[in-house]
Amino acid sequence: MRARLLYRKNYILGLLLALSCSLATAGIAPEQIARLGADLTPMGAEKAGNADGTIPAWKGGILTTPASYEPGTHHTDPYPDDEILFTISADNADQYLDKLTPGHQALFSTYPDSFRVHVYPTRRSASMPQRIYDRTRDVAATAQLVEGGNGVTGAVEGVPFPIPENGLQVIWNHILRWRAVSAARKIAQAAPTRSGSYALVKFEDEFHFQYNREGVKEEELDNVIAFFIQKVAAPPRLAGNILLVHETLNQAKEHRKAWVYNPGQRRVRRAPNVAFDNPGTAADGMRTSDQFDMFNGSPERYDWELVGKREFYVPYNSYKLHSSELTYEDILTPLHINPEHLRYELHRVWVVDATLKEGSRHIYKRRTFYIDEDSWQVLLVDQYDNRDQLWRVSEGHVINYYDLPSLWTTLEVHTDLQAGRYLAIGLDNEEPASYDFSIQRSPKDYTTRALRKLGRR
Q1: Domain that holds residue 211
Q2: Is the peptide bond before 405 cis (omega within 30 degrees of 0)?
């Protein structure tokens, strides 16, 4: 009898716990949703500026395409007259410590003679199509985390958690943020040695974010939020290798699916290792698979803590770095990329600490993410090794692709403080154009059969 009563007690406690977890991850209350577009932006950011006026109010971001931009070319700077307000160096960094992340503080300490942060006026340029704002408001009432936070349900098109309650919701906002429906790009990647020598790896990438397709229903996704193809175009020894990825919405139900095409074998094979801390494609061991796009894939190996919101100097409106007037040699200098071409601004960011779960494996024991309040784009990441030493600092240099519009990276840089090296991926200055958002794609373009045909062209 005692055993039966104990079983019933545990069963009831289990039901209560399950109910409380469900309530904790359910959509937000109507009075909170009403704040979107009122005191909050449609994406959930604080619409007002800060108290001292160094961060302005959000007024819609970039709403028109600059007259200087010609479609199909690199995006010209919509703020050409902005001048540097001040420069932070190792000599004066102590004056700005409250606005510098630990990663940036470490870069000043490691490279005191060369690392600089040029601070420009803050421009809250992030903007998105109206339907993304509308759908974010809709799904805010229905979006839920599932399976211990390793998936999302009740949301399509919009950002699921515009007023987040925990770190997992914030990182899922980054994963499901608006970028485009379909996009193509030709980019280069480089991992310079300490002396500055490098060899370029060139990629031809395609993305199809069916989660963001207008009018899509959750059941139509078949649990796939995005399709991705990456073809290596150079150097010759790697050319022809192709990666295909199907990224999933409920990672607990089904992890991402990946395949590779090898031109030497002329066959397609599964690639289950394209995840977590396995090495990134041709990256010389300088980044993990889940560092691509600043973070991607399943969050299951970490505990995610929402630290709060802070003001930091972050890379933003990096049109100078994106310019076709620069060469790769202008950018790729020894130890870190050339700071003279970088733009930093003061922005409010969500701070999320990810700590490796007991029993889980990853080369990064802890990671701190700094996520833009206006777009949910990860802008900075500090990565720590198993000795709790800061190891790598990642920067997402973003621009508003105002012809869409979408705020997305133009260059990702992962700096290894211990090796004195870094990886830059997304270089497009010497390419004929940047992102192409005009391509028309559907899921049938990302099957293994399509991959095999693409490899044999």
Answers
A1: 86-455
A2: yes
What are the start-end ranges of the E strands in 39-129? 86-88, 117-119
The reply to whether 63 falls in a domain is: no
Please answer whether residues 407 and 125 qualify as being in contact, where contact means their C-beta atoms are separated by less than 8 angstroms: yes
| Phi, psi (degrees; rounded to nearest 5) at 421 | -135, 175
Handedness of CA 269, 270, 274, 277 (dihedral sign): negative
Q: What pLDDT is recorded for position 325? A: 97
Chain centre distance of CA 86: 28
d(CA 414, CA 411): 10
In this structure, are residues 200 and 136 in contact, taking their beta carbons and an 8 Å threshold?
no
- How many residues does the structure list for the chain? 457
The confidence score (pLDDT) of residue 26 equals: 63
**What is the predicted pLDDT for the residue at 54?**
98
Cα 377 to Cα 398: distance, rounded to the nearest angstrom: 9
Which CATH number belongs to the domain containing residue 366 in this structure? 2.50.20.10
Give CA–CA dist 354/299, Å, rounded. 9
* Inside any domain, residue 58: no
Number of structural domains found in the chain: 1
95 three-class SS: helix
Q: 244 near 231, Cβ under 8 Å?
A: no
**Within a domain: 401:** yes
189: left (phi over 0), alpha (psi -120 to 50) or beta: beta
Q: Tell me, yes or no, whether 10 lies in a domain.
A: no
| 109: its two tokens | 């300490």
Report the DSSP beta bridge partners of residue 245: 228, 258
What is the rounded CA–CA span in Å between residue 184 and residue 435?
Answer: 6
Task: Collect the ranges in the chain with pLDDT lower than 70.
Answer: 1-26, 457
pTM (whole model) above 0.85: yes
